[in-house]
């Protein structure tokens, strides 16, 4: 673990990046040590989300149609929001919602 916190790679795809200033990849170093995916979602909403939060979050989780992968594994297999993040985890959010 780094001296300053928890280093993570956060990526967005399938159009989700448009909600985060169009940036697909974010290297972050979160303060402190105990981070779950649920806490990360709140941090993303408060710190990186630049538009239309209702397209990314519903309540305290991602809205239906947003796939969440941690190190290429579906978060549903890892306990969803309760998953404890580890240093250098890669968290990927992919939107399956497309206009037509």
Automatic annotation (TrEMBL):
Q: Which Gene3D superfamilies match?
A: 3.10.20.30
Question: What is one Gene Ontology biological process annotated in the Swiss-Prot or TrEMBL record?
Answer: tRNA thio-modification
Chief place where the protein resides: cytoplasm
The entry's cellular-component GO terms read: cytosol
Q: PTMs? A: C-terminal thiocarboxylation occurs in 2 steps, it is first acyl-adenylated (-COAMP) via the hesA/moeB/thiF part of the MOCS3/UBA4 homolog, then thiocarboxylated (-COSH) via the rhodanese domain of the MOCS3/UBA4 homolog.
Where in or outside the cell is it found? Cytoplasm
Indicate where the modification 1-thioglycine is found in the sequence.
100
InterPro entries in the record: Beta-grasp_dom_sf, Mopterin_synth/thiamin_S_b, Urm1
UniProt keyword annotations, A-Z = Cytoplasm, Isopeptide bond, tRNA processing, Ubl conjugation pathway
| Keyword Transit peptide (UniProt) | no
Pathway in which this enzyme or protein is active: tRNA modification; 5-methoxycarbonylmethyl-2-thiouridine-tRNA biosynthesis
Give coiled-coil spans as residue ranges.
none
Q: Which Pfam families match?
A: Urm1
Indicate the cross-link positions, Glycyl lysine isopeptide (Gly-Lys) (interchain with K-? in acceptor proteins): 100
Q: Where on the tree of life does the source sit, at the highest rank?
A: Eukaryota
The UniProt family comment states: Belongs to the URM1 family.
Q: What does this protein do?
A: Acts as a sulfur carrier required for 2-thiolation of mcm(5)S(2)U at tRNA wobble positions of cytosolic tRNA(Lys), tRNA(Glu) and tRNA(Gln). Serves as sulfur donor in tRNA 2-thiolation reaction by being thiocarboxylated (-COSH) at its C-terminus by the MOCS3/UBA4 homolog. The sulfur is then transferred to tRNA to form 2-thiolation of mcm(5)S(2)U. Also acts as a ubiquitin-like protein (UBL) that is covalently conjugated via an isopeptide bond to lysine residues of target proteins.
Any idea what this protein is called? Answer: Ubiquitin-related modifier 1 homolog
According to its UniProt entry, this protein's organism is: Cyphomyrmex costatus
């Amino acid at each position: 673990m780094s001296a300053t916190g928890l280093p993570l790679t956060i990526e967005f795809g399938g159009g989700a990046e448009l909600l985060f200033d169009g940036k697909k990849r974010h290297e972050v170093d979160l303060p402190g040590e105990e981070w779950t995916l649920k806490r990360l979602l709140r941090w993303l909403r408060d710190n990186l989300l630049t538009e239309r939060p209702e397209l990314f979050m519903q309540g305290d989780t991602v809205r239906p149609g947003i796939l969440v992968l941690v190190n290429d594994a579906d978060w549903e297999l890892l306990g969803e929001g309760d998953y404890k993040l580890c240093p250098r985890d890669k968290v990927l959010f992919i939107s399956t919602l497309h206009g037509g």
